[in-house]
Amino acid sequence: MKNYLIVLLILAIQLFSIEPNFMSDPAISPEGDMICFRYMNDLWTVSYKGGEAKRLTSVKGADYNPDYSPDGKMIAFNSDREGYGAVYVIPSNGGSAVKVITGDYFVVDWYKDSQYLLLMKGERFVGNKMYRVKIDGTGLTDLDIFGNLYGDLSSDNDKFIFCNNGDPFREKYTGSANGSLHLFDLNINDYTDVYDSPLTERYPVFSKTGKGIYFARSDSNLFQICNIPEIELEKKDPKVEQITNFNKWSARDISIAYKNDRMVFEYFDKLWVLDPTDKVAKELKINIAEDIIQSPKVILNNISTTDKFYVSPKGDWILFRYKFDLFAVPFEGGEEIRITGDAKGIGDFVISDDNETIYYTAFVKGETKLFKTSVKDPINSELIEWSKDKIIDKLKIIKGKMFVFYSEGDDRFRLAVRDRKKDIYEEIVPDKYVLDIDLSNDGNLLLYTELVGGLYSINLYILNLEEKKEKMISSYNEWLWRMSIDPKEEFLFYNIGDAVYRTDLKKVSDYHFEKDKWKEIFTPQKDKKKDKTKKEKKEPSEFFTTGLKEKGNPLLNKPGINYIIKLTEDQKIFYINEFSDKIYLRKTDFQAKDDELITEITGGKITDVSYADSTGGVFYLQRNKIKAFDMKSKKIKDTPFDIKYSYDQQKIYSQLFDEIYTSFKRGFYDPEMHGVNLDKMYDRFKKYMDQYHIADSFGFLIDEMIGNINSSHTGYYPNQESEVPALPVAVIGAEFDFKDRMDKGLKISKVYFQSKLAEVHDIKAGDVLLSVDDVNIERDTDIDELFVNKVDDKIKLKIRSGKIEEEISVKGLSSDYMLKYDDWVNDRKLKVDELSKGKVGYLHIRGMNESSYEKFLDDLFTDNFNKEALIIDVRFNGGGYTHDRLIEVLTKKQYAYSSARWDHAVKRKTPFDIWDKPSTVIINDRSFSDAEIFPTLYKDLGLGKVIGTPTSGAVIGTSSHTLMDGSSMRMPLAGWWRLNGENMEGNGTQPDIRIDMSFKDKIEDNDVQLERAVEEMLKAIDNR
C-alpha cells in the first residue's frame, strides 16, 4: 500500500509540474548539496540530486549570475530590477534581497570570510578590472588587477584564475581573440600564463581539494571539461586531462563546490553535474511545481500605432501593419478591417488603383511570398502561384502598374511586372540587381537603376516594355536613389547623397524656363483653358536617342538631408529637408529659385513620407502614428483606430527561426557556409522550437546554431522591452580613486581634458568630490547611486581643491566615451613627442568611417606634416569601409614641383599633400574588420612595418537585417581575400614586430607597443 501511494505521488508531481529548459548561470553551494540557477529571469534553487526547484527571487527585471558564499548562507547576484545595473545579496534559503552596490559591476566570486565580494568592471582601453566590496556596500576598492567574469579565487584567496577573451559559441575559432587561462598571484602581485592553445579555454575554477584547476577547453568541435593538476600549473606546457567526452553539446559556465569539488555546468538546454570522484557527468533532473509558464498567447490593445502604412489611391483609407498582420481603416478613423489573421508576418504591401485590391508579402517557412486579397473580402486571400519558388523583396505601384522586386536563388532583386489584363507576372529584368524604378506617363517606358558589383556603381537603363528593348543611358560612381520623372517627362530628379539633382530627359533650350509675359496677357482666358487640355505629342523613342547629360550641380542642397515627395505639372517641387533634428516641408520650382517654407513638422523624426494626389495631403509616420498634413488647411490630422490583437508567441518564435535560417542561408557571404551544412543545423535546432521560450533563451538557441559556422560579425538581438523602466547612470567626465578611500569625500584620479570639469571649472586630478546634489560623500557612499537617472540633468557638485571648496554645476552625460577617447589619444601624442623629442608624429584612427577619415587628413596634414616620421595607430578601431582612401593617401607620389612669388618662389613638391617619410602602423587584438584590412594592405604594399599583436581575423562586410518581429541580426555579406588567395576572415593581420601588452602593462597604461613604434621610427629617421 505504501509503495502504491509513493507511485501515485510521483505521478501527481509529474502531472502538475514542469521540466524547465534553457536554464543558465548555475552556481553550486559550498557543501555541493544545492544549486542555484537562472530561469525565466528569476533565481531558483534545487538539490544537487535534482528534484523540485524553489523560486528564490520574484521581482520584475532580470536576476542573473548568482554565486554562493563560502559559508553557504548568502547568494550574491546581478540584477536590473531597479532600472539600472547593481549587485545584490539574498539569504540562500530565501528572504529579501539587499543591494550591495550600484553600477556596471559583475559578481565574480566571494572571499573566504563570506563578507567580501570580488567584482569585475570593464574599462575602455584597459579591459576588465577587479574590485572588492563588502556585502554591506562599504569598502569598495580598486584592486588594480586585470581579470574576467569567468574567474575564481583559490581557497586561501592568494591566487585568482581567470580566462581572457574567447567566444562561447565559436568552438572552432583560432586567432588572437581565442580564450586563454591566466593566474594572478596576490602574494607576489604578478601574472602567470597557465594555458593557451590555438583554440579557446574558458570557465576556469580552482579545485578546492588540491587537484589544480578545472576548465572547459575546445576540442575544435565542443567544449570539454578538463583538469590541470596542481603540480602542472606553473609549467610552461602543463599536462591536461580531458574528463568529459561530449559529442552533442558544449559544457559551459562551470561552478565548483567549495568543499568537495562537485561541479555544475550548462549543457545546452539543461544543467548537468559532475562529481570528480567518479568523473561521470549526468543531467540534473529538475521540475518546477509552480504555475510559471505563461500562456504563449499575447493580447494587446493597440491605439493608433503602426510601423508601416500605405495610402489608398483615393486617399480615403489606410492599409497598415501591426505586429504580424495587416489592417485597413478609413483615413478619418473608424472601424478597422482585419486583412490577415494568421500572424505569419508581413513584409511589403500595396493597394491597386481600383482602390480595393491589396497585394502583400507574407512569410512562408521563412521566405516572403506574394499574396492577393481585397479590402471588401479579405478572408479569401490568394497565394500568387508565380511567387512560390521566389522570395519577394519589394512591391511598387507606379501609374497603375504593379512591379515586383524578387529574388530567385543567387539572382537578387530582379524585376517583374504584373500584366493587368492577363493577370500574369512577366519577368522584365531577370539579369540585373534593380535598385529603383520610375515609369513614363503612357506606362511603356521604364527607367531603372542597376547596382553593379565590383565598383558598386549605378547604371541607369531605359526599357521599352512593349518592344522589349532596353538601353543604358547613363552611369554613376555614386549612390543614386529616390528617382522620379516629372509629369511632363522633361527632367529626371534623383538623390546622390543628401542632395537632389536634376538632369534633362529631352533636348531643352537655354530659355526653357523663361515665360512670355506678353503672350499670357494677350491670350484670352478661354484659350488658356484650351491650352491646358491640349495634349502634347510625345515621341516614346526620344528617351533612347537623347541620353542623359552629366549629373551637373545639385539642385537642392540645403544643410541636412533633402528628398522630393512630389513633382507637379506646373513645375513645382515639394520636398523634405531634415537638418539638426528639425524637419521642414518646403516648396520650390524646377530651378530652385523660389524656395519657401510651407511648415516645420514638429514632434520628432518622420518616415514613410508620401504625397497623395487625391487629397493634397502629405502623409508620414511619426512616433508610430499615421499623420497627414493638409496643404490647404495647413493642419495635421491623425488616423485614429483601436485594435484588439492577439498572437501566439511560441509560433512567432518558430516563424522567426525559419526566417533567420532562410536569411542567413541566402545572405551569408560564403555559399559553402564555412563548410557547415546549414540544413542539418536547421533540423537539429528546429525541434527545440516546441519548448517554451523567452527572448533570452531564443537568442541563446540562435547564437548556438549560428556559432557552428564559426564566423565573426554575427549575432541575434531580440526586440524586447525591459520589465522595468531604464534609469541610466549619468557620468561627468572624471574618474575616481577607489584604491584609497577617504572618510569624507572621494578623490578624483583623472579629469578628461576636454570635459566641462576641466575646461570650464579647472578641476584637476587630486581634487576631492565632497557632495552630489547636496548629498555628502562618506567613505561608504554608493557613488553611482548618486548619479542614477540624471542624464541631461543639471548636477550640483561640491569640490575641494587644496583648501578651497566651491560649488559647480555640470550636465549629466549619458556616456563619456569620446571624452575618454580624446584623453587616451592625447596621452599617446604627448608620449610620442616626449620620447622622440618632437621628431615623430602620432595620429589615431578611431573608426573606418567618414568622420575618422576627415580627422585622419586633418591630423596628417596639420600637426604631423612637418614631422620626420609618423605613427598611425588603429588599436581599438572597430572597422568600417575607408581602407582604400587611407591607402590612397599614403601611396600618393610626387610628380613635379611648383612655386609662387608670395611663397618666396620656393620650389615645393606637387602634389603637396603626400606623405613620403617613414611611417608605421600599430595594431592589437581590438583592431577589427576594416581596421585589419588597412594594416594588411599597408604591410603588403611595403609602406612600413606593422607593430603590435595579431588582429582577431574578424574581416567580413556586414549589415543589420531586421526580422519580422522587429528584432535584428548581423548578416555577414561580403568577404575579403588577399591577393595570395587567403581569406582574411579567421586570419588576422600578423605584425612585422610582435609586441604583446601584459596585463600589468594594460593596467598601468605602460604602452610598450607605442614605445617600440617610436624606437623604430627614430631608427628609420637615422637611416634616411
Question: Can you offer a commentary on this structure?
Answer:
Helices cover 15% and strands 39% of the residues. The chain has 1024 residues and is mostly beta strands. The strands form 19 sheets. Strands 58, 59, 60, 61, 62 and 63 form a 6-stranded antiparallel sheet that branches. Strand 50 (582-589) and strand 51 (596-601) form a beta hairpin. Helix 11 packs parallel to helix 12. Mean pLDDT is 92; it is low at 4-15.
Helix and strand topology:
Elements: H1 2-16, E1 24-28, E2 34-39, E3 42-47, E4 51-52, E5 54-55, E6 63-68, E7 74-79, E8 86-91, E9 98-102, E10 106-110, E11 116-123, E12 127-134, E13 141-146, E14 151-153, E15 159-164, E16 180-185, E17 190-195, E18 201-206, E19 213-218, E20 223-228, E21 241-242, E22 251-256, E23 263-267, E24 270-275, E25 280-283, E26 286-287, E27 297-303, E28 308-311, E29 317-322, E30 325-330, E31 337-338, E32 346-351, E33 357-364, E34 367-374, E35 382-383, E36 391-398, E37 401-408, E38 411-419, E39 424-429, E40 434-439, E41 445-451, E42 458-464, E43 469-476, E44 480-485, E45 491-496, E46 499-504, H2 517-522, H3 525-533, H4 542-546, E47 554-556, E48 561-567, E49 572-579, E50 582-589, E51 596-601, E52 606-612, E53 617-622, E54 625-630, E55 636-638, E56 642-648, H5 649-667, H6 678-686, H7 695-707, E57 715-717, E58 734-736, E59 746-751, H8 756-759, E60 768-772, E61 775-776, E62 794-801, E63 804-811, H9 817-836, E64 840-844, H10 850-861, E65 869-873, H11 883-891, E66 896-898, E67 908-910, E68 919-923, H12 930-940, ...
Parallel strand pairs: 4-26, 64-65, 65-68, 68-69, 69-72
Antiparallel strand pairs: 1-2, 2-3, 3-5, 6-7, 7-8, 8-9, 10-11, 11-12, 12-13, 14-15, 15-16, 16-17, 18-19, 19-20, 20-21, 22-23, 23-24, 24-25, 27-56, 28-29, 29-30, 30-31, 32-33, 33-34, 34-35, 36-37, 37-38, 38-39, 40-41, 41-42, 42-43, 44-45, 45-46, 46-47, 48-49, 49-50, 50-51, 52-53, 53-54, 54-55, ...
